[in-house]
Amino acid sequence: MSLHMSDEELYRYVDRDLNRREHAEVEGHVESCPACQARLAEVQFVEQAFRMMARPRVPTDFTARVMADIEARQNALWNLYASSTHSNSGANPNCSAHTN
Amino acid sequence: MAISPPIALTRTAGEADAEVLNRLSDEELVQQTRRGNRDAFAVLVERHQDGVVNLVYRLVWNWEEALDIAQETFVRAYEALSTFQPERRFKPWLYRIAANISYDYLRRQQRLEAFGPDGHLSVKANATSADPHMLVEQREIRQTVEEVIAELPPRYRAVVVLRYFEELSYTEIAEVLDMPVGTVKTYLHRARTLLRVALRRRGMTP
To answer: How confident is the model at residue B7, as a pLDDT?
Structure first.
């Protein structure tokens, strides 16, 4: 085994991207090597820091806007479908004026 | 050209139904939507809007555009639900649509290289700690993270968001951003190194 763990090995360790043998190898080395212990702590700190990124606040009416957009486009499609078939069978079931 | 009829929408679901829908998995909600239950799709929008808006904003760095692109993402996802394969996960499929629309936007703007955010995100500390020192420290760390992310090109930022916000696997990130898994690892490694150096330079690492 090399004198110290590489950065890549430490990142793969925190990512759980190592097989069982490699994982045990890193764990064993870190336990007995203060330098690698410190580097692992730094790597783990960076991982935590990334998770502190700001999250945007989505407007409260976002879902309503999406659903209204979907309905408008569906209605437009139904109208296109109805006019393309030239029959009543294509009437828009989403539009109450057209049902019954 | 033959035009196929769109999915018929039904209006049902009182509060009790909404509760039931909230307990369903994404993939079950997709099935419900395919059967014509619009409320099932509204639950999917509610569930994934933060993640989609966040990813898109980090790609395009323009808040108004990000909201428009996120809205377009959900509409296109709805229209393409018949192509979704139920054995796959909905989230990476949805995010891929978001990434593709964002890339198109960036291409139109010729802005696939790094450029700065529009300053929409305010960097505030979470009110999770009563210790004022902790709050200051958290705010400084978050500030550093945001500065490092702002320096990264769009695809690097997307990898970081998908990894740390959405907890996607390397394979899923590669699928969403249409890049090899090796590239995902390389981008992530570079982002981590930059942040590590920046935090170290400011004396914030342990």
So the answer is: 55
